[in-house]
From TrEMBL:
It is an enzyme of class 5 (isomerase). Its EC number is 5.3.1.6. Catalyzes the reversible conversion of ribose-5-phosphate to ribulose 5-phosphate. GO terms for cellular component: cytosol. One of its GO terms (biological process) is D-ribose metabolic process. The active site is at E102. It holds the Pfam family Rib_5-P_isom_A. This is Ribose-5-phosphate isomerase A. It comes from the Bacteria. Pathway: Carbohydrate degradation; pentose phosphate pathway; D-ribose 5-phosphate from D-ribulose 5-phosphate (non-oxidative stage): step 1/1. GO terms for molecular function: ribose-5-phosphate isomerase activity. The gene is rpiA. Belongs to the ribose 5-phosphate isomerase family.
């Protein structure tokens, strides 16, 4: 099975969790497969909240109504991919730059369903550079503070987030305590959010493997 076939398999499996109401939808190639699969059952949901402009556009192309998060209450589920995930369901996200809106929609959802192919499962987070969204004028200051935390930040060249901010990708981290690091980075003035989803990790992981979709629960 190819990596794309594994992504499609977990995307289809996640649709079973979208039974009714409004669905929170993530960003990225795996989330895109979820949107395509969700479109086939769109009659049973009331719409979706998108975690990025790209996701909103894809949902609309499929005829799925996109709702403003401020006009809806708590969502039943949020479905999204990850760049890395552990068996404890802590994640690095934000490879596609959508981390802040993803974190907001996830925070408003009862259940976070992570969909990923098996290449994303790791023992320790940090091989994938950790994305940190920063207010542009704070870029250099935040970078110096991230060096103090043991990382090597690199500006994502030519990239602006949907919120008009910059991304520093932090290399060289071996994240043995993701909850503490997530908190420490959030405390740096000028940081909007960081790609560690550990304080609020996933509740369910649907992992695409050669032998089928495996389910992990918190
Ligand atoms: O900002 C992007 C998101 O956090 C994605 O969920 C993450 O990068 C995984 O994307 P993909 O499914 O394309 O590997």
């Amino acid at each position: 099975m190819t990596q794309d076939e594994m992504k499609q398999a977990v995307a289809r499996a996640a649709v079973d969790y979208a039974r009714s109401g409004i669905v929170g939808v993530g960003t990225g190639s795996t989330a895109n497969y979820f949107i395509d699969a969700l479109a086939e059952v769109k009659g049973r949901i009331d719409g979706a909240v998108a975690s990025s402009e790209a996701t909103a556009a894809r949902l609309k192309r499929h005829g799925i109504q996109v709702l403003d998060l401020n006009s809806v209450g708590e969502l039943e589920i949020y479905v999204d991919g990850a760049d890395e995930i552990t068996e404890h369901l802590a994640m690095i996200k934000g490879g596609g730059g959508a981390l802040t809106r993803e974190k907001i929609v996830a925070a408003c959802s009862k259940q976070f369903i992570c969909i990923a192919d098996e290449s994303k499962l790791v023992g320790v987070l940090g091989t994938f550079p950790l994305p940190v969204e920063v207010i542009p004028m704070a870029r250099s200051y935040v970078a110096r503070e991230l060096v103090k935390l043991g990382g090597q930040p690199r500006l994502r060249e030519g990239y602006t987030t949907d919120n008009g901010n910059l991304i520093l990708d932090v290399h060289g981290l071996s994240i043995v305590d993701p909850v503490s690091l997530e908190t420490a980075i959030n405390l740096i003035v000028g940081v909007v959010s960081n790609g560690l989803f550990a304080r609020r990790g996933a509740d369910v992981l649907l992992l695409g493997t050669e032998s089928g979709v495996k389910t992990y629960k918190r």
